[in-house]
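I hope you will forgive my troubling you with a question about protein structure. I am sending you one protein, given as its amino acid sequence and as whole-number tokens for its backbone shapes. Thank you for your consideration; the sequence and its tokens are set out here:
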Amino acid sequence: MRLSVRFALVLLAGASALSSIGCNSVPGQWHRQSALVNRRLHGQNQQLAQQQSAIDQGRQRLAQENADLQQRLSAANARLDNLSSERQQLQSRYTNLLKNQQSVLPDSATQKFKDLAQKYPGLEFDPETGVSRLKTDLLFDSGSTHVKESAKPLINEMAKILNTGEAKHLKILVVGHTDDRPIAKESTKKLHPTNWHLSTNRANEVLLTMHKAGISENRMGSAGYSMFQPVKPNANEGARSQNRRVEVYVLAPDSPIALQMGDGLAPRSATNSDEWDPRMAK
């Protein structure tokens, strides 16, 4: 009995010792792990802080760039508004002057133009105003600004009439018009991105052809109205074909439009047209 009691006491003492050792070692290990985790979190927090700082700087830079772009956009819009206003004023002046125009052609030239209109079905001539209207289907292939060889004799004869007698002192304004269809062919878009370009470029081409036929450039000017001055609503192909046209106005030397050809207010001659903003040609 005494031996069993002693043995129990020994077991209790050993268990107590083991318990004491375990309790002392666990807190030390936990502290080391906690310190390691804290150091890792601290490093991550520093990285996040740096990233946040970079993001804030990027936002500030983008905000400044956006403000600069908005300022430039506002300035560009203001300039476009000014150009649009000037264009509308010019358009109104041209339209009113041309609508009220009376023919300045001498009788002999008027008769020659009448005869020419009988000879070429694609030419319409108004003896009251002296305006010649040429269908672009007669002058150009679709989407092209190169005058057809078959149309050059007509332009040459017009130039000859305008270089004869009293008519050789008159001024000439060549105006291009299109129908309402946008430029579709990619090959055409590269050369004439819009109907503005197409109408002005065609007018310039006729002007240059007239110059080659002998008319001095300082007598001429050109303009384009794109699709905005149709003679008929663009309801069908027949109407569109009539709206695609080039008009040749014959003006007195002292006509307001003729005077503007030399002072920079009217459309420039074809020699300078490549640098001319087509929005000013309407």
Q: What stands out?
A: The chain has eight helices and five strands. The radius of gyration is 42 Å. Confidence is low (pLDDT under 50) at residues 7-12, 263-282.
